[in-house]
Write a structure and sequence with these properties.
Helix content: 25-40%
Distance between the termini: 35 Å
Protein name: Establishment of sister chromatid cohesion N-acetyltransferase 1
Strand content: 25-35%
Radius of gyration: 18 Å
Organism: Cyprinus carpio carpio
Strand order of the largest sheet: 1-2-3-4-7-9-8
Pfam families: Acetyltransf_13 (PF13880)
GO molecular function: protein-lysine-acetyltransferase activity
Domain N-acetyltransferase ESCO acetyl-transferase: 139-170
Length: 208
């Protein structure tokens, strides 16, 4: 968030935001974690709607923090009973990533554009500024990603891609119940994304 250190009101709001963020990312763990993947830098766990109240309370705290960080309006999940939350937990027991997926029936395919020729720096700048467009014709889909977030200091380490891969693996192997939002295609049909923004679309571009 932006604030002026010389403004008492801004300073107070910044302190409140900071404390809420620290509380949300702190992870103490719980019994019978549903671990989907373990890695040298952390693990991915899955939280389902019928999990204990303390787990769901933590997920809600994380969702509010993620919405604030992404600049989303605070909106409750449309169908809580069909929501799956994937959390990436770092080795220092912090929530470093979050993916929230919901059951859907249709989505809108992202319209691909040709890759810009130029230096690596020019390509990065183009990716950050490009507009993402989608078809107006709905197509059948199974899963919508309403939010995907990675802590700023942990980005570009493949965390988002790993959470997406856990989601896809669960769908393909039927180990996850089929899991709703406004939505856009991921390249592995029939999973789609509802966040056509550069930072959120980047992990999808490497999926096949």
């Amino acid at each position: 968030m932006l604030y002026s250190p010389t403004s008492p009101e801004d300073e107070s709001q910044h302190l409140l935001f900071h404390n809420q963020f620290i509380s949300a990312v702190r992870y103490v763990g719980w019994k019978k974690e549903r671990i989907l993947g373990e890695y040298p830098d952390g693990k991915i766990i899955l939280v389902l709607p019928d999990d204990p109240k303390y787990a769901l309370k933590k997920v809600e705290e994380i969702r509010e923090m993620v919405d604030n960080d992404l600049g989303f309006q605070q909106v409750e999940t449309k169908v809580p009973s069909q929501t799956k939350t994937f959390l990436f937990i770092s080795n220092d027991r912090k929530v470093a990533g979050c993916l929230i997926a919901e059951h859907i029936q249709e989505g809108y395919r992202v319209i691909e554009e040709s890759v810009l020729e130029g230096s690596e720096g020019e390509k990065v700048m183009y990716e950050r500024q490009r507009a993402w467009c989608c078809s107006t014709v709905p197509e059948p889909a199974l899963c919508g990603i309403s939010r995907i977030w990675v802590f700023s200091m942990m980005r570009r380490r493949g965390i988002a891609s790993r959470m997406i891969e856990c989601l896809r693996s669960g769908l393909l192997s039927s180990t996850l119940p089929i899991m709703h939002t406004q939505h856009h295609w991921l390249q592995f049909h029939p999973v789609i994304s509802s966040l056509p923004l550069e930072a959120k679309m980047k992990p999808f571009s490497c999926m096949t």
